[in-house]
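## retry 2 of 3
previous attempt timed out at serialization; input unchanged, resubmitting
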Amino acid sequence: MLRRIFDSQPTASRANLELLFRTVAEVQLNAEAMQASIEEVKKNWSVP
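## retry succeeded, writing output
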């Protein structure tokens, strides 16, 4: 049963997977940078 489910699932091309991984990595970097900016603003404005 699981084999039939697996076989019926669409597969992503290598190019799409690489794009997905690259996008996730970029989003993670941006999130880290945004968090640092938020912390800096909180510190500068004395926000807890």
